[in-house]
C-alpha cells in the first residue's frame, strides 16, 4: 500500500436508521438482549421517536456532548402526554429536566449542603439510623426486606437530613414511590391517578413544612434552604419545594431498590459475604459493583439539538436520546469480565456512571453510597446470619427500575 494511501482519512460510514426493537422483547431479558444488540448496533429505537445509545464509549462522550442537552420538563411532559396537574408541574420544575442558567438556579441551593465535606460530616448520623433500623428488624420470622429495611433506610435518613420528623417518613415514602413510577422511559398512563395523588399530597406536605420555617426556623437543612431562598428569591417558592421533592425522590426509590439488590447479590455468594464480614473496608467496592451489575436506574435521558451520527446510526435533531447505563456498564470496552459480579474489581471509573457525569451528575451520589455502605455494615455486624427466602428481581430497562418482593429471615438468637 502506498504512503499516500496510508495517510488518507477514512471516509465516515454511511449513516443508517437505527433498528426498531420491541420493548417487550427487551424487557424479558434486558442484560442478554442489550449485549446482543450492542455487538451490532450503537443505537436502537424502541419507538419511532425514542433512540437509545448502548455502547459505553458513546454513553460517556454523549453525556458531555453539546449536541445533546437534558430534555426540558415541558418537553418531557409533552412527549409523554402527561395530563396537566401536580405531576406535570413537578416535572416542568424539576432540576433534572432543565439546562444552563435555569438548571444552576435550581441546583444551586443544594450545592453547599451536598459538598463532599458536608456529607462526610453526616456519616455518624447515617450509621446511627442504619443500626437502629437493623436492631428493629424481626427475628425468627420471615419478612419483606424491601419494606422493613430498604424502604426505611433512605426515607428515614432523608427525613433526618432535611429536618422532617422521622414519623413523617412513613407518610411521604409511599407517595414518593408513586411519583417514581412516572420517571420512566414510557410514562405509565394507566397509573396516572395514583401518581397524581402522590405528587399532590407530597407537595402539600413539603410546602407546609417549608412555609413554617419562613416564620419559625429550626436548626435543620430545610430552614437553611428556605433562608437562602429568602435572601435571593431567584426561583419561585413552589419551584424550591419541587427541588426538595426531587431530592427526596432521587434519594428514596433508587437507593431502596439498589440496596435490596446489593444484599441479595452478596448474601447469595457466601464467600463474598464472609469476606466483607472479615474485612469491612471492602464494603465500598462491593456496593460499587452491585450498582454496576444490576443498576436501579436504567438510563440517563438526553435530547438532541442537532442531527448526529453515532456509530453507524443517524439520530435526528429534536428527539429523546436515552443513554443506557444498563448496557454501558456491561460493555467489555468499559469493564473487564463485565458479566461477572466481582467485589474486588479494580476497574471502576473514578466517577461511577450510575450517577451520571457533567452538570447533571447526581448531587447526592456520596450520600446514597454512604447510606448503602453503612446499612450493609450494620447488617454484617448485627444480622450476619440473615437468610434469603425469596430473592428479588429488578424489572425494567430504563428510568427508575422496579424491584419485586424480597423475603428474608434472621434466626432468633439462642
UniProtKB/TrEMBL annotation:
Lineage start? Bacteria, Pseudomonadati, Pseudomonadota, Alphaproteobacteria, Hyphomicrobiales
What the record says about family reads: Belongs to the cytochrome P450 family.
Q: Which UniProt keywords apply?
A: Heme, Iron, Metal-binding, Monooxygenase, Oxidoreductase
Top-level lineage group? Bacteria
Tell me which InterPro entries the record gives: Cyt_P450, Cyt_P450_B, Cyt_P450_CS, Cyt_P450_sf
Q: Which cofactor does it need?
A: heme
Enzyme Commission code(s) on record? 1.14.-.-
Tell me the Pfam families matching this sequence: p450 (PF00067)
PROSITE patterns to which the protein is assigned, alphabetical: CYTOCHROME_P450
**Molecular function terms, GO-annotated:** heme binding; iron ion binding; monooxygenase activity; oxidoreductase activity, acting on paired donors, with incorporation or reduction of molecular oxygen
Q: Could you identify this protein by its name?
A: Cytochrome P450-pinF1, plant-inducible
Organism from which the protein derives: Methyloligella halotolerans
Amino acid at each position: 500500500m502506498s504512503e499516500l494511501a496510508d495517510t488518507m482519512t477514512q471516509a465516515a460510514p454511511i449513516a443508517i436508521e437505527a433498528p426498531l426493537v420491541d420493548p417487550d422483547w427487551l424487557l424479558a431479558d434486558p442484560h442478554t438482549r442489550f449485549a446482543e444488540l450492542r455487538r451490532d448496533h450503537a443505537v436502537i429505537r424502541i419507538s419511532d421517536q425514542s433512540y437509545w445509545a448502548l455502547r459505553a464509549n458513546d454513553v460517556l462522550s454523549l453525556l458531555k456532548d453539546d449536541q445533546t442537552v437534558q430534555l426540558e420538563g415541558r418537553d418531557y411532559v409533552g412527549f409523554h402526554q402527561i395530563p396537566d396537574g401536580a405531576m406535570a408541574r413537578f416535572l416542568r420544575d424539576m432540576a433534572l429536566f432543565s439546562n444552563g442558567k435555569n438548571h444552576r438556579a435550581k441546583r444551586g441551593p443544594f450545592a453547599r449542603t451536598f459538598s463532599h465535606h458536608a456529607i462526610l460530616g453526616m456519616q455518624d448520623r447515617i450509621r446511627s439510623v442504619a443500626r437502629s433500623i437493623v436492631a428493629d428488624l424481626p427475628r425468627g420470622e420471615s419478612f419483606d426486606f424491601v419494606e422493613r429495611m430498604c424502604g426505611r433506610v433512605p426515607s428515614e435518613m432523608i427525613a433526618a437530613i432535611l429536618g422532617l420528623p422521622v414519623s413523617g417518613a412513613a407518610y411521604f415514602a409511599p407517595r414518593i414511590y408513586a411519583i417514581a413510577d412516572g420517571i420512566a422511559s414510557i410514562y405509565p398512563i394507566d397509573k396516572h391517578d395514583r401518581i397524581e395523588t402522590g405528587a399532590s399530597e407530597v407537595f402539600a406536605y413539603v410546602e407546609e413544612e417549608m412555609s413554617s420555617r419562613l416564620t419559625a426556623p429550626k436548626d435543620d437543612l430545610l430552614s437553611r434552604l428556605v433562608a437562602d431562598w429568602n435572601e435571593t428569591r431567584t426561583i419561585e417558592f413552589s419551584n424550591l419545594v419541587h427541588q426538595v421533592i426531587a431530592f427526596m425522590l432521587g434519594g428514596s426509590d433508587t437507593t431502596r431498590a439498589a440496596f435490596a439488590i446489593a444484599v441479595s447479590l452478596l448474601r447469595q455468594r457466601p464467600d463474598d459475604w464472609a469476606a466483607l464480614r472479615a474485612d469491612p473496608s471492602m464494603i465500598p467496592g462491593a456496593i460499587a459493583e452491585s450498582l454496576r451489575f444490576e443498576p436501579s436506574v436504567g438510563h440517563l435521558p438526553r435530547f438532541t439539538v442537532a442531527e448526529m451520527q453515532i456509530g453507524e446510526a443517524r439520530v435526528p435533531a429534536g428527539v429523546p436520546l436515552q443513554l443506557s447505563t444498563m448496557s454501558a456498564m456491561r460493555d467489555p470496552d468499559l469493564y473487564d469480565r463485565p458479566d461477572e459480579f466481582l467485589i474486588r474489581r479494580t476497574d471502576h471509573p473514578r466517577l461511577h456512571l450510575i450517577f451520571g457525569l457533567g452538570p447533571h451528575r447526581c448531587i447526592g451520589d456520596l450520600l446514597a453510597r454512604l447510606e448503602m455502605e453503612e446499612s450493609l455494615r450494620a447488617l454484617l455486624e448485627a444480622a450476619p446470619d440473615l437468610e434469603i427466602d425469596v430473592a428479588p428481581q429488578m424489572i425494567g430497562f430504563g428510568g427508575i427500575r422496579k424491584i419485586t418482593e424480597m423475603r428474608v429471615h434472621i434466626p432468633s438468637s439462642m
